[in-house]
Amino acid sequence: MFSYSIVGAQLYVGDMLFVMISFLVLMWLVKIVAWKPITKMMQNRSDKIASDIDSAKESRTKAADLAEKRQTELQKTREDANGIINTAKQNGQEQREKIVEDARNEASNLKSSAEKDIEQQRQEALANSRKDVASLSVEIATKIISKELNADDQKDLVDSYIEGLGKQK
Q1: Rounded to two decimals, what is the model's pTM?
Q2: How many CB atoms lie within 10 A of CB 24?
Q3: β-pairing verdict for 9-12 and 3-6
Q4: Does the pLDDT at position 135 exceed 90?
């Protein structure tokens, strides 16, 4: 066999071929047994990280969309609440005005009714006064003349006199 000599150590070509072939076989075995699974594991890890990043971006986008939608709904709810409050205020104002108007109408009706009652009582009092005056006049005339006058004639005379007094006022 061939041998080379390097400063005190001898290297044999056969040993070198054996080491080189062993190294190549070892590298081939490492490639088959370890390198492919490691690269596959690293690729899977890289894919998972990329997927997680994409998922995080998608989640962030969805969260932003949901936040915007929630904000829009909140604004709409506020506007609806303000509309309900304004409607309630308007209805309250209308109801208050209706109640005041009804009270005024009722007061007016009561006043009108009271005036009618007063007029009716005045008419009744005037009629009673006429009857009393007629009776008194008949009695006075009877006593003065000492004879009894016809009551119907006397009554007509007194009624016409009282009507004349009522027209003068």
Answers
A1: 0.41
A2: 10
A3: antiparallel
A4: no
